[in-house]
Write a structure and sequence with these properties.
Layout lengths: L3 H8 L18 H7 L22 E3 L6 E3 L18 E3 L7 E2 L12 E3 L7 E2 L12 E3 L7 E2 L12 E3 L7 E2 L13 E3 L10 H4 L7 E3 L21 E3 L12 H5 L2 E2 L10 E4 L5 E2 L5 H4 L10 E3 L19 E8 L3 E4 L4 E3 L1 E6 L3 E5 L5 E2 L5 E3 L5 E3 L8 E9 L2 E12 L26 H10 L1 H6 L8 E3 L6 E4 L9 E10 L6 E6 L4 E4 L7 E11 L6 E12 L12 H33 L62
Length: 656
């Protein structure tokens, strides 16, 4: 055998031994290379050269496609950074993740299912899901999200299931669902704090099948909010604050059932229990729908409160037409001033108030007018063309009611009322703004005598009986002015520039101004408001002006302060006690002097008697001691002294 054959046989034992001639020296190594090629391991194109390690406490399924990373209940505080970016399923539920950052899910372009349920997520960074363009389902329920902005769901162009229930959502941005509006099929917003929703954005979810809005704080639903949701199969609005549900074209096209049990495939399931429904004529359409028994009940009106919704007859769903209860009286304002027209109405349901101008146009919010929901129309700046009859229209589902409010716009008030002393133009000799100071002083000295008496009062308007807070204004009859509608009084005090207006009936010739400030000077003008026969417009003509001053208020005698009263009472009481003690001491001293320096209860000891004057019958014997005299209280300072001679017997004994 040639020398090359053993080498080939030892290198390729399985190769057949064929006789061959010795190869050329350059070709001697070629058979060896050909035999070693089948022994090299073949690399699979489906497996990467290096695989990411599985995060700690997680289970990873990387042996078969699709790849899954399962980390439920692993006690994670954040999204693991060592995730396999090829994963198609990522489950991070029941952990303690507080935020989703932009880099946490970057480059996971093949992810189809992401579950972040029941964590403590408060913040989702803008663009956190921007790379998840293949994502089909996103579960963010059971977290602590309070709002959802426009950039937080950006990039989810293939999302079909979005679960946001059991959060603390109070605001949902109008553009939050823009990227997934055409593909979203399931949207769950239940158990949140939503009071308002971007209804226009929800109306663009043309492929949505299930819409969960239950257990929120929704108080109203606009009419036609669901008209474009043609594929909607279930709408849940349970346990909100809805008092009525407006009819929608979607509801009229599909048969409705109150519960999904036994419903046909094409039926729309509508759940609205747990709402404080106001059962009036606006809910008759809902009462007429085919449904299975459910637990809805009426909350109002009082006659139907607490009754089962489906047990109330259609004839009991009634409304009350509106009634205007209050409107503004005829109002007159000068041009350029604001004016407020008010109209109040009651009815069931609550009527909506609108205003129509004297020209027949509907008045709404503009640069010159503002219409408020409570029925008030405010004209910010009035013009002469605004005068006329404004019509208040109150309407609800049962009818409408109208009321007229007259507005008169007069000429602007005289500008000199605030700082001048009279409505009349300056007379000759009176200084004005155009008179030089020297000329003004010369004219003032020339008319000093006229200035002493003061300007003559206007004969048309007189102010009499003015006190500290009130004044009586009188003016003559204005017969030359035809068609007078009313009189207008304008006045202001010297302390401010605010004009006060009073509207007086046309048949009045006097008016009592009250609530004036004491000790102030007032400028007052009376104007007649009449209808100009030539033009047919409302005009004003001044009747006259006057100036008067209110009397200063008398200062009332104030009651003494409480500390003063308390001190006075203490001093008086002490004085009485001291006087009583002094009187008592004085009485004791007097009684002591009367009794001769002895206490009043103890008798004075009798003085010894040297001689006693007595009368006897002549018997001899010892002289008995006189009885002790009974003490007697002396009635006066009298001393009686008795002079007695020594007693001698009448018969002296004789000797034997």
């Amino acid at each position: 055998m040639p020398s090359g054959t053993p080498l080939l046989a030892s290198a390729c034992p399985n190769a057949p031994l064929l006789p061959c001639r010795p190869p050329p020296p350059a070709m001697a190594v070629l058979p060896l290379l050909l035999c070693l090629l089948p022994l090299a391991p073949a690399s699979s194109p489906s497996q990467p050269a290096t695989a990411s390690p599985c995060p700690r406490r997680c289970r990873c399924q990387t042996q078969s496609l699709p790849l899954s990373v399962l980390c439920p209940g692993a006690g994670l505080l954040f999204v693991p950074p060592s995730l396999d970016r090829r994963a198609a399923e990522l489950r991070l539920a029941d952990n303690f993740i507080a935020a989703v950052r932009r880099r946490d899910l970057a480059n996971m372009t093949g992810l189809l299912h992401l579950s972040l349920s029941r964590n403590t997520i408060r913040h989702v960074a803008a663009g956190a899901f921007a790379d998840l363009r293949a994502l089909r389902a996103l579960h963010l329920d059971g977290n602590r999200l309070t709002s959802l902005g426009e950039g937080q769901l950006r990039g989810l162009v293939n999302l079909r299931h979005l679960i946001l229930s059991n959060n603390q959502l109070a605001a949902l941005a109008a553009g939050a669902l823009d990227d997934c509006a055409e593909t979203l099929e399931d949207l769950d917003l239940s158990y949140n704090n939503l009071e308002q929703l971007p209804w226009e954005a929800l109306g663009r979810l043309g492929n949505v099948n299930t819409l969960g809005l239950d257990h929120n704080l929704l108080a109203s639903v606009p009419a036609g909010a669901f008209s474009r949701l043609h594929k909607l199969a279930r709408l849940d609005m349970t346990s909100n604050r809805l008092t009525t549900i407006p009819p929608d074209p979607l509801f009229s096209r599909l048969p409705l059932l109150a519960r999904p049990r036994g419903s046909p495939a094409s039926a729309l399931v509508l759940a609205f229990g747990g709402n404080p429904l106001h059962c009036n004529c606006e809910l008759v359409w809902l009462r007429r729908l085919a449904r299975e028994d459910d637990l809805e009940a009426c909350a109002s009106p009082p006659a139907l409160g607490g009754r089962y919704f489906w047990a109330v007859g259609e004839e009991e769903f009634v409304c009350e037409p509106p009634v205007v209860t209050h409107r503004s009286p005829p109002l007159a304002v000068p041009a350029g001033r604001p004016a407020a027209l008010r109209c109040r109405a009651v009815g069931d349901p609550e009527p909506r108030v609108r205003w129509v101008s004297p020209q027949g146009r509907l008045v709404g919010n503009s640069s010159r007018a503002r219409a408020f929901p409570n029925g008030t129309l405010e004209l910010l700046v009035t013009e002469p063309g605004d005068g006329g009859i404004f019509t208040c229209i109150a309407a609800n589902a049962a009818g409408e009611a109208t009321a007229a409010v007259e507005l008169t716009v007069g000429p602007p008030p005289p500008p000199q009322l605030a700082n001048s002393t009279s409505c009349d133009p300056p007379r000759d000799g009176d200084p004005d703004a155009l008179t030089p100071p020297s000329a003004a002083s010369a004219s003032a000295s020339a008319s000093a005598k006229a200035a002493d008496t003061g300007p003559p009062p206007d004969r048309g308007v007189q102010v009499t009986e003015h006190g500290a807070t009130a004044a009586l204004v009188q003016w003559p009859d204005q017969r030359p002015i035809p068609g007078i509608r009313m009189y207008q009084i304008q006045y202001n005090s010297s302390a401010d520039d605010i004009l006060v207006y009073r509207m007086i009936p046309a048949d009045s010739r006097s008016f009592l101004l009250s609530d004036l400030a004491s000790g102030r000077t007032y400028d007052l003008c009376v104007l007649a408001v009449y209808e100009d026969g030539a033009t047919g417009l409302t005009a004003t003509r001044p009747v006259g002006c006057a100036r008067f001053s209110t009397e200063p208020a008398l200062r009332p005698c104030g009651a003494p302060h409480a500390p003063f009263l308390g001190g006075t009472m203490i001093i008086a009481l002490g004085g009485v006690i001291v006087a009583s003690v002094l009187v008592f001491i004085f009485v004791l001293l007097m009684r002591y002097k009367v009794h001769g320096g002895q206490p009043p209860g103890k008798a004075k000891a009798p003085a010894p008697v040297s001689s006693v004057c007595s009368q006897t019958n002549g018997a001899l014997g010892p002289t008995p001691a006189p009885p002790a005299p009974e003490p007697a209280a002396p009635r006066a300072h009298t001393v009686v002294q008795l002079d007695c001679e020594p007693w001698r017997p009448s018969h002296e004994p004789t000797g034997p």
